[in-house]
């Protein structure tokens, strides 16, 4: 199971529509890596204030993924901002959308993909919390 959460930064707002639910890899083709699974049912809503600043959206997991397992997130960007595409998520905050302009009020899509290497073996179900944060761009 995957749980998404959001932190509020003063003067900006950020919310997430909910959890995408269980992502389970259960298929593979002989001689190939397991077949990745994805879910695009989650959205985030972002509002930025009027000051003449740019913002970035970061994402991080509450704990690393097991060896050989990767959870990636692709976060759609509001007008004027840049999505960095599919980002492998881990316990370090990573930019996922950059240069979000002021006066944005938008609801945008999130797509998660879970992939695995054969070397990961059988991994029991687990969960991760994804924290999204709005930060002022440098």
SSE sequence, one letter per element: EEEEEEEEEE
Radius of gyration: 16 Å
Structural class: mainly beta
Which word captures the global form? elongated
Number of domains: 1
Overall average pLDDT: 90
* Strand content bin: over 45%
Looking across the biggest beta sheet, what order are the strands in? 1-10-4-8-6
Helix content: under 10%
Question: Total helix count?
Answer: 0
Low-pLDDT segments, ≥5 res = none
Gap from first CA to last CA: 34 Å
**How many strands, which pairing sense, and closed or not: the largest β-sheet?**
5 strands, mixed
Tally of extended strands?
10
Describe the model:
With 138 residues, the chain is an all-beta fold. The chain has one domain (2-26, 33-119, 129-136). The chain is 0% helix and 48% strand. The chain has no helices and ten strands. It has strands spanning 2-6, 13-16, 37-47, 55-61, 69-75, 82-83, 87-88, 94-100, 105-116, 128-136. It has a five-stranded mixed beta sheet, with no helix packed on it. Strands 2-3-9-5-7 form a five-stranded antiparallel beta sheet, with no helix packed on it. The model has no long low-confidence stretch (mean pLDDT 90).
